[in-house]
Each structure stands twice: as C-alpha cells, then as structure tokens.
Amino acid sequence: MLPAGREKRMMILLLALAGGAGALLRYVLGIVLSGWTKDAAIPAPMLIVNTAGSYGLGLFCGLYLQMVPVIQPEDPVYLIAGVGFFGAFTTFSTFSVETFQLLRQKSWMPALWYSTLTIIGAVLGFLLGYASAAF
C-alpha cells in the first residue's frame, strides 16, 4: 500500500529521480553504443540496453526476493528500483518506434530479427540476472 501525505510525496520524488537516472543512463549508453554499432542493420543500441536492463532487473528481483517473500507492486524499493530506474532505463516504446521505422522502410528481415532478438534477449537477460542472484 502506498504511504499517505508527506511520505507519498517523498516516494513520488524518489521514483522520479530514479526514473530520471535510468533515462539519462539509457540516453548516454545509446550515444556511446551508436558509435560502435553505426553500421548495424538493426537498432543495436536499444537492443543492448534493453537486454542489459532486463538482466539488471532480474538481478535486482533475485536479490530482493532473498530479503522479502513476495515483491508487491506497491513495495517502495521495487517502485524506486524496478519501476523507476529499470522502467526508464529499458523502453518498450522506443523498441516499438524503431521496429515501426524498419517496417516503414520495408526492411522486413531486420524488423523481424530486431523484434525477435529484443524479446528473447529481454526474457533471457532477466532470467540470467535472476539466476545470477543465487551466486
């Protein structure tokens, strides 16, 4: 359950700060990775960021579940780290726009590869992160 009053405002502020940090890190990594992957047929920077972010979220969830039995959607730690930071760091909407751009360019195979690799990479990244928490 979300806190009321002053505590709720503090939670909103912390959520916004974590989201801002996640978005800023995604932006900076996107710039760095764009220089390394500029000749790729697919939007590799976002693929890498989403996979890495899914790994990080899996690691966070795996570690956090060692301390709490169940992660509740309104749990303050989950809200700040999971929803705020990792929610802003990874982005399904940018993935959707980039896939749409490939489809508009009639780049059918790159669009298919990008979509497939993003979904598989995100799920496997999360599972690997979660499993890593056990070590």
UniProtKB/TrEMBL annotation:
Pfam families in the cross-refs: CRCB
Record GO cellular component, one term: plasma membrane
Membrane topology summary: Multi-pass membrane protein
Keyword annotations from UniProtKB, A to Z: Cell membrane, Ion channel, Ion transport, Membrane, Metal-binding, Sodium, Transmembrane, Transmembrane helix, Transport
Single GO BP term: cellular detoxification of fluoride
Keyword Chloroplast carried by entry: no
Reaction(s) catalysed (UniProt annotation): fluoride(in) = fluoride(out)
InterPro entries cross-referenced by the UniProt entry: FluC
Organism domain of life: Bacteria
Binding-site positions, Na(+): G87, T90
GO molecular function, one term: metal ion binding
Subcellular location, record wording: Cell membrane
Regulation of its activity: Na(+) is not transported, but it plays an essential structural role and its presence is essential for fluoride channel function.
Membrane-traversing stretches: 40-65, 77-97, 112-133
Keyword Cell membrane (UniProt): yes
UniProt xrefs under PANTHER family: FLUORIDE EXPORT PROTEIN 1-RELATED, FLUORIDE-SPECIFIC ION CHANNEL FLUC 2
Role: Fluoride-specific ion channel. Important for reducing fluoride concentration in the cell, thus reducing its toxicity.
Family: Belongs to the fluoride channel Fluc/FEX (TC 1.A.43) family.
This protein's name: Fluoride-specific ion channel FluC
Source species: Alkalicoccus urumqiensis (Bacillus urumqiensis)
Classification lineage: Bacteria, Bacillati, Bacillota, Bacilli, Bacillales
